[in-house]
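Progress report, Aim 2. The chain analyzed during this reporting quarter is listed below.
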Amino acid sequence: MYNFQYHKPDSLDAAVTAIAGAEDGKIVAGGMTLLPTMKQRLAAPTDLVDLSAIPDLKGIGLDGDTLVIGAMTTHAEVAHSDIVKGHTPALAGLAEGIGDPQVRNRGTIGGSIANNDPTADYPAAVLGLNATVRTTKREIAADDFFEGLFTTALEEDELIVSVAFPKPAKAAYVKFPNPASRYAMVGVLVALTDDHVRVAITGAGQDGVFRASEMEAALSADFSPQSIEEMALPAESLNADIHGSAEYRSHLVTVMAKRAVAAATG
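Predicted structure tokens for the chain:
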């Protein structure tokens, strides 16, 4: 690990000032990706800005019928929250399946979606549940937030403050985890809201999380596993690596989507 300047601001304004004044500054939320990368000397930021001392970034609450989760809220807090379980059980279940207890007690929802790892779980939740990402500058709709591998709409000095989730009528998340890392080889979140269905897929796409429009149309007409029984995404648009071919992932997408619909209706 190379030398760097460490900052631990206690307010959002101080954090924005610190990151804006750094030559090559990086935000530390949970540090689940950044710190291992730095230890391997694959990243060498001049400054680290630790957000853990900013109270405005933590917490879970309801704003009317909208679930609001602070950016620095850990996966474990989301998984165990009675508010989350009552509002969107699928989100609590998703959080409970992330990594291991050490990761769940350090990793944060804001850090996960800002990093936008193509195999992470939370991007599927944000996109599938049609959430809104609230930042220090604006509100960003889920469909506009994720832009590609490890890429989002966030600007250099823009921080995620919270994520707002509208309440779905029905929703479920099912994934096929890599047995070693527990990252999603394929994860599918299905959500039904006002007779419209959103299907978000993580782990499979070459450009990261994406929506499956044909499945959405079929499920909007008939919200049952049978309606997507014969559907398969084109293999050429999917990842292929040592863990599974593109054809295998195409098969998994359909299987996981059917299981998600069954879980949502059950």
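The two ends are 49 Å apart (CA to CA). The longest helix spans residues 246-265. These observations will guide the mutagenesis work planned for the next reporting period.
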